[in-house]
Specification:
With 1264 residues, this protein is of the alpha/beta class. It has four domains: 133-183 and 200-385 and 563-599, Rossmann fold, CATH 3.40.50.200; 388-427 and 440-554, no CATH class; 686-897, no CATH class; 942-1263, Lipocalin, CATH 2.40.128. Helix content is 23%, strand content 33%. Strands 17, 20, 22, 25, 28, 31, 34, 37, 40, 41, 44 and 47 form a twelve-stranded mixed beta sheet that branches. Strand 51 and strand 52 (1031-1045) form a beta hairpin. Helix 13 runs parallel beside helix 16 (456-477) and helix 16 (456-477) crosses helix 21 (536-551). The longest helix has 24 residues, at 949-972. It is elongated and about 170 Å long. It starts with 12 loop residues before the first helix and ends with a strand. Pfam families: Autotransporter, Peptidase_S8. Residues 30-85 are annotated as: Disordered. Residues 49-58 have a biased composition (Basic and acidic residues).
């Protein structure tokens, strides 16, 4: 609280300090008048400090005494006209990956926190307020923390929004609280504001108290003068009685601004509200809590219980300025009477530069539990500077420039005389009904008696004399070496020199005392000997108006200045709360408050004391999290937040001695929090996210760590407390220690939740219990352990040790992960192992399990008793069988063959191939690899091993044979072909050449894999036409076909073919008959890969195959030379046989032979032709052809191949079948290139649901 020029009678800090100074000066002290004046001043100072002005409604809200302003510009060296660099975005928490996470004052970055902090301490604007360094604000700024995004409140005399320190959008919010307040008519409402968040300046006097306080909180970092503690925060200003118009007070107006202001602040978004005001009282600093509570009026208690509970805001109250012997003021001490408000109140005492309690500051007293100390002496901040009206400035300037001819003693005598007459009350006049006494001095007596004047003109002259005296003292002080005076007086003397009207403001405010007193004329007469002449009120009002008129001529401009008081200390704390709130954005208001209190630097007596409370605010420590818990600390970190609290966190009772000041940590939210200090609070509970403990944690008897959900990481020590993991998971790292505490993993009841613990550290002096839904793993060492749930030693493969006895209960599980060739999880027990049942669950690791291998997983040095109930190998392939082998001190898993491969076959080929593999020896590579697979993978592997591509090649050869057959039959149809018969009859010989291309796919039948093929052939032929019309010819050629089996890892084959054949054709009118015989010899080259987990072979086989076919076709043509329709019928028999083959390339190589395939193909269809002839031509020059047919295939449609592996195991696989039904489509065009030559282009397609084949051909033929 500062001294505001509208207050109750002020304490004379000057008089007190002068008394101390003069007593040390014998020459002056020997003068009786001076000695008496000094003694009187001291007495008045103490008397005034014990008084408070009674508020009209509930007596709260008046400023306390003892603070003085100094306006002389910025101190030397603090001006910085450079634009301040913008701050980077504030970092949240610790653990950033930025190699230079700390922010320098010039905007650059550093890897060293201390280097960054030092740069701020060297910053000139930072140095403007010495309190910033005193509270360690540089450690917040170095982290990029400025209060950004945090909203603060101030309830004070108003904040001057014209001051550049509050410039910027969203910086200052003015709260208009006039609605609901009944104001009397007042012609002197001031020049700036009237309960709208601004100060009243002008007629009403002068109050920049709130501007100074607000500047300390949030003033901009703009390169000028100073900046606020939380210069990135915003401020909501509500106007208090500190700015009330004294004109209304004199008339006894009844109005209360607090309810509306508290409501507006609660709705503003502010989280922390500064109150640099309070009510003075006489309660001693050593008063008991009961005495303090009793001293607070009941009406106040009801009022503050209501307004301080609004919105969950935290309220920061200045303790008061009545001296160290006085208890913190009523507002600051409210929780003594209203304990429920304690979490929402902070009391603040003032410190000087030596960390001593400022002489004016009231002590914390019983408010110590919610009290801290902060810099409040000589604080530089924003102000409203005032200049003297011209006529009084002339008086001041004349004395300042000339030689007054006065000694130091004489100048001080004038100051004392001025304050004794005009400012400070010399006595208190009691009022009826228990009201506070009214302070009265000689100035008041002269005014009430009429000695000062009775007419407005006389009182105006009286006002001129008062103001002229103030101007004179200002001029005289220019000749006084103020720095040589007692330091306590510096602020006051500078103020009287640079703002001589400051005491006039006080006098104006103090007129309300006589204004109240004249309502009791009998008391005025009895106490002061003044008889009411009926004009007392008029004289008081007339003098006030005269002073207003003169004050209105003063000039008011934004500026900076010094001030002292607990009013200056409180905003340092409120600003610090904003920095802590930004740093820990996930904390609520009370948690921010507790963090700031419990990290304060202890001053005075050890622990929380009645002078300094928790001690001096220390933002360097507060940036590292709370220092103690005063209640359960229930914190929720949102997803993505990673933070570290590095302070040693205790229970508050260790500092306060109050049993109630203790609590546990409750961690919620998906974020991660690390506690890296040594902690001794009341345990923890994790409900979400991750909590990591890296220090020593000893919570005391009866408390424990609990994980209900989320995760815990213990890399430090938990000493003397149990750890219960009821849900979620916990990790105890290799450095983690659980000392003298038990570990519980889940519970045994039906409501128990799944919980997992990976224990990699050391448990000593305790035991472990794994409940029915618990799971325990890791590579650490535990004490006696009982498992009713699941134990899974290792983190993957690893060994877990029980240093004691082990019990595996019925219904439990023991998970064993094994990795070939000989690695497995192990549980090593130094004592005995008792097996009461339970199931061993085998988990497979990577690698190939060797049949016959054993994996030891449990050993007990003290002996083994009992048996497991079963083995669950469902996580291992069913082709492996796991058995338990017991020894006196150990148990191991044995590996042998399990179910047969044929058991899981889905197709014929899988079944016969699997059965063949089942017959192979255990040491066969195929067996050793297949037993590692699960059935779905084994089925695919067996398909690769089956070699069905060999059989499917037969179907490709059958389908491909039609292209050779069609080439021969086309030539045989010439006997009845009208277009061809138009050549010269004497040309009996014919020759032709045909180039073919074809491709197709035979789809899988669900057993064998589908086959894709493409290739081509070149054929030549010659024939002769006999006189009877019989055509006989021979043909031959070569061809190549590529075959791909995509479903078998794209197995590839090649067919290199040679062809020979004979054909004939004859026509009897419209009836035609053609037939032929062909033979094909094929070099088969097949490459395939067998690759699956643990096995890979590249196989190849070369062998021969033959194709023999005979065919006959009859057709009858309707039409003439220009067009024709020919129904036809065709029969062909195709036989394919293959030699034996033997693959090379590895254990999966097969040998065998494909059985002969005989296919009977019967086709019926119709052909169309149409010829074109130009006018005058003897022959048609173009013939268009089309045909549509249906083919039925009989005989052996499914090719079989008899196979065997190198080590035995014979089996027969089936290939993809030949299509049994197909639709045929033929398209073609023949162009005559000469009288006896032709060029033909043709397409032939075969379509079936399971197969497709497409062919194209180019043929040139010649007759000669």
């Amino acid at each position: 609280m500062t001294q505001v020029r509208r207050s109750s009678p002020p304490v004379s800090t000057l008089a007190l300090a002068i008394a101390m100074t003069l007593s040390a000066m014998p020459a002056i002290a020997s003068e009786p008048t001076q000695q008496q004046a000094t003694r009187d001043a001291v007495a008045r100072a103490f008397a005034a400090s014990d008084r408070r002005e009674a508020r009209e409604q509930h007596g709260a809200g008046t400023p306390t005494q003892g603070e003085r302003w100094l306006r002389r510009g910025a101190p030397s060296g603090t001006e910085d006209t450079r634009a301040a660099p913008p701050l980077a975005a504030a970092a949240t928490g610790a653990g950033t990956d930025d190699p230079q996470p700390y922010l320098m004052a010039d905007g650059s970055r550093s890897a060293d926190l201390e280097v960054a902090a030092a740069s701020w301490r060297a910053d000139s604007e930072f140095q403007g307020d010495w309190g910033l360094q005193a509270i360690g604000a540089e450690y917040a700024y170095a982290r990029g923390i400025t209060g950004a995004g945090v909203q603060l409140g101030i309830f004070d005399s108003g904040v001057d929004d014209r001051n550049p320190e509050f410039a910027g959008a969203g910086k200052l919010h003015l709260l208009d609280t006039r609605d609901g307040i009944e104001f009397p008519d007042d012609p002197y409402e001031g020049q700036v504001g009237n309960f709208d968040g601004r100060p009243l300046i002008g007629f009403s006097g002068y109050s920049d108290h709130g501007t100074h306080v607000g500047g300390t909180m949030v003033a901009n970092r703009d390169g000028q003068g100073m900046h606020g503690v939380a210069f990135g925060a915003s401020l909501h200003s509500a106007t208090h009685h500190l700015a009330r118009d004294a004109f209304t007070g004199i008339r006894g107006s009844q109005f209360d601004v607090e309810p509306a202001a508290f409501q507006a602040l609660a709705q503003s978004g502010a989280r922390f509200v500064n109150h640099s005001w309070g009510s003075s009282w006489t309660v001693g600093a050593d008063a008991s809590a009961e005495a303090v509570a009793a001293a607070i009026p009941e009406g106040w208690k009801a009022h503050y219980r209501k307004v301080l509970g609004l919105g969950g805001l935290v309220h920061v109250f200045a303790s008061g300025n009545s001296g160290n012997a006085v208890h913190a003021g009523a507002q600051a001490a409210l929780p003594a009477a209203l304990p429920e408000l304690e979490p929402y109140v902070v009391s603040v005492g003032s410190l000087d530069r030596d960390d001593a309690l400022s002489g004016f500051s009231q002590s914390c007293g019983t408010a110590r539990y919610w009290c801290v100390s902060a810099p409040g002496s000589g604080i530089y901040s924003a102000t409203v500077d005032r200049s003297l009206p011209e006529r009084f400035e002339a008086i001041r300037q004349e004395l300042a420039d000339g030689d007054p001819g006065l000694s130091r003693r004489q100048i001080i005598d004038e100051i004392i005389a001025y304050q004794d007459y005009f400012v400070f009350p010399s006595r208190g006049v009691p009022l009826p009904h228990g009201d506070e006494p009214v302070g009265v001095n000689q100035f008041h007596i002269d005014l009430l008696s009429g000695d000062a004047g009775t007419t407005p003109e006389q009182l105006g002259a009286f006002a001129d004399r008062l103001l002229a005296t103030a101007a004179r003292i200002s001029g005289l002080l220019h000749h006084l070496d103020i720095e040589a005076e007692h330091p306590v007086n510096h602020g006051l003397l500078y103020e009287l020199r640079d703002d001589p009207f400051s005491w006039v403001d006080t006098a104006v405010s103090n007129l309300s005392g006589p204004g109240k007193l004249i309502r009791f004329p009998e008391i005025v007469e009895s106490e002061l000997g003044i008889v009411d002449d009926g004009g007392q009120l008029d004289r008081v009002v007339a003098l006030q108006e005269a002073l207003y008129e003169r004050l209105a001529a003063a000039g008011y401009t934004p500026g900076h200045g010094f001030n002292s008081g607990t009013s200056m200390a409180a905003p340092h704390v409120t600003g610090a709360l904003a920095l802590v709130a930004e740093r820990f954005a996930y904390l609520d208001n009370v948690q921010v408050r507790d963090t700031l209190l419990t990290t304060a630097t202890d001053l005075g007596e050890a622990g929380v004391d009645g002078v300094f409370g928790w001690g001096k605010v220390d933002l360097g420590a507060a940036m590292n999290g709370p220092g103690a818990f005063l209640r359960d600390f229930d914190v929720s970190l949102p997803e993505g937040t990673v933070d570290t609290w590095s302070n040693d966190i205790t229970n508050g009772l260790l500092h306060t001695g109050r049993e109630q000041d203790r609590g546990a940590l409750i961690k919620r939210g998906a974020g991660a929090l690390t506690l890296s200090g040594d902690n001794s609070f009341d345990g923890f509970t994790v409900h979400g996210g991750l909590l990591s403990l890296t220090g020593l944690n000893a919570y005391g008897e009866g408390f424990e760590g609990v994980v209900e959900n989320g995760a815990l990481s213990l890399a430090g020590t938990l000493r003397g407390n149990d750890l219960r993991v009821n849900g979620g998971m916990a990790m105890v790292t290799t450095s983690g220690r659980l000392e003298n505490g038990d570990l519980f993993v889940s519970g045994d009841d039906a409501q128990a939740r799944a919980a997992t613990v990976s224990f990699n550290g050391l448990q000593s002096g305790g035991s472990t219990r794994v409940g029915a839904r618990g799971r325990l793993g890791g590579i650490g060492t535990l004490g006696d352990t009982t498992v009713a749930g699941t134990i899974a030693p290792g983190n993957s493969i690893g060994t877990l040790t029980v240093d004691g006895d082990y019990v595996q209960q019925a219904g439990s599980f023991f998970e064993v992960e094994t990795t070939p060739p000989d690695l497995s999880d192990r549980l090593e027990v130094t004592g005995t192992a008792t097996l009461e049942g339970g199931t061993v669950v085998a988990l497979r690791g990577p690698g190939v399990y060797k049949l016959g291998q054993g994996y030891g997983f449990l050993s007990a040095a003290g002996g083994l008793s009992g048996r497991f109930a079963a083995v669950d190998s469902s996580e291992v392939t069913p082709f492996l069988k796991l058995t338990l082998d017991y020894a006196p001190t150990s148990v191991s898993l044995g590996v042998s063959r399990g179910l047969s491969f044929a058991t899981f076959a889905d197709t014929h080929n899988q079944r016969v191939t699997g059965a063949a593999i089942d017959g192979l020896d255990d040491d066969n590579a195929i067996v050793g690899s297949l037993v590692q697979l699960f059935p779905e993978d084994a089925g695919r592997a067996i398909d690769l091993l089956s070699g069905d591509a060999h059989a499917s090649l037969q179907s490709v050869l059958v389908d491909g044979s039609r292209h050779l057959r069609e080439a021969a039959l086309k030539r045989g149809r010439g006997a009845t072909d009208a277009f061809e018969s138009q050549g010269d009859d004497d040309r009996r010989f014919g020759a032709w050449v045909e180039v073919q291309g074809n491709g197709g796919r035979i789809r899988s039948d669900g057993n064998a894999a589908g086959v894709d093929y493409n290739g081509g052939a070149t054929l030549v032929g010659a024939d002769y036409v006999f006189d009877s019309g019989l055509r006989v010819g021979l043909m031959g050629g070569i061809g190549d076909t590529d075959v791909t089996v995509r479903e078998r890892l794209s197995a590839r084959g090649g067919l290199r073919s040679r062809f020979a054949g004979a054909y004939l054709g004859h026509g009897w009118g419209r009836l035609g008959l053609r037939a032929g015989l062909s033979w094909g010899q094929h070099d088969v080259d097949l490459e395939r890969r067998v690759v699956y987990a643990g096995f890979e072979d590249a196989l190849r086989a070369d062998y021969d195959a033959d194709t023999l076919q005979g065919f006959v076709e009859a057709g009858y043509r309707f039409g003439n030379e220009r067009w024709g329709i020919e129904p036809y019928a065709q029969f062909a028999q195709v036989r394919v046989d293959s030699d034996r083959f033997r693959e090379t390339g590895g254990a999966a190589a097969l040998s065998g032979r494909t059985r002969d395939v005989d296919a009977d193909l019967t086709t019926a269809g119709v052909r169309f032709d149409a010829s074109l002839r130009s006018n005058g031509q003897a022959q048609d020059w173009l013939s268009l052809r089309a045909g549509l047919g249906y083919r039925k295939t009989g005989g052996e449609l499914v090719p079989w191949t008899d196979m065997s592996f190198a080590d035995g195991g014979r089996f027969t696989v089936h290939g993809v079948p030949v299509a049994s039904d197909a639709t045929l489509l033929d398209l073609g065009v023949i162009a005559r290139t000469g009288a006896n030559s032709q060029f033909e282009l043709g397409y032939s397609g075969q379509f079936n649901d399971d197969a497709r084949d497409h062919g194209g051909s180019l043929r040139w033929s010649l007759r000669f």
